[in-house]
């Protein structure tokens, strides 16, 4: 996550983190559906409008690092020369995301997500958004010359690699296995 530099930015980031931490604690203690936005705001000692200035929805409170993850995935491929390899950096980012999501403390959060249709739906739309951002970065960077379909397929595969690996018995090995397939697919889509 990018560290805010100014005092105001640091204060905003601290407030955002406090709201997210409070929400997650309440959701895990009482159940996601049992906790309302007003309760989260009150427990975090902020106004409801302040909460909504940091998070667009209740679901977004659970996925508070969503924008950071999307930025990191797209950033792994952006701004590269056409002949500069990007897949090792993208693989490292997916490994980091999987490690974040596979920590022992994350298990209760994933159980909560899996039990909630609203959270599962939000996660699915988040993954699609991440894949579209990554596909756009590929098409604008190292994917130049490859079709939009190829860029989207590779991007979706990378994002799904994260989802599949976090559920695997050996997440790191799963990322490596999936990225071998992604690398092979990227190689076959090279312009003739």
From TrEMBL:
PROSITE patterns: HTH_TETR_2 (PS50977). This is TetR family transcriptional regulator. Gene3D superfamilies: Tetracycline Repressor, domain 2 (1.10.357.10). Pfam families: TetR_N. Residues 36-55 bind DNA. It comes from Streptomyces griseoviridis. SUPFAM superfamilies: Homeodomain-like. Residues 13-73 form the HTH tetR-type domain. Keywords: DNA-binding, Transcription, Transcription regulation. GO terms for molecular function: DNA-binding transcription factor activity; transcription cis-regulatory region binding.
């Amino acid at each position: 996550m990018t560290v805010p530099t100014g005092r105001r930015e640091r204060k905003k980031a601290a407030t955002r983190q406090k709201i997210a931490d409070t929400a997650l604690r309440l959701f895990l203690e009482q159940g996601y559906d049992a906790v309302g936005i007003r309760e989260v705001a009150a427990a975090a000692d902020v106004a409801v409008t302040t909460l909504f200035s940091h998070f667009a929805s209740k679901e977004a409170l659970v996925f508070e690092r969503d924008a950071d993850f999307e930025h990191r995935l797209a950033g792994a491929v952006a701004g590269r020369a056409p002949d500069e390899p990007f897949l090792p950096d993208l693989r490292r980012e997916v490994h980091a995301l999987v490690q974040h999501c596979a920590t022992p403390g994350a298990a209760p959060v994933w159980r909560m997500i899996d039990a909630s249709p609203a959270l599962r739906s939000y996660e699915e739309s988040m993954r699609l958004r991440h894949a579209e951002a990554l596909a756009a970065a590929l098409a604008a960077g190292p994917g130049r010359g490859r079709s939009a379909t190829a860029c989207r397929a590779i991007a979706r595969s990378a994002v799904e690699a994260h989802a599949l690996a976090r559920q695997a018995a050996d997440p790191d090995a799963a990322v490596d296995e999936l990225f071998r397939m992604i690398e092979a697919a990227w190689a076959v889509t090279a312009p003739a």
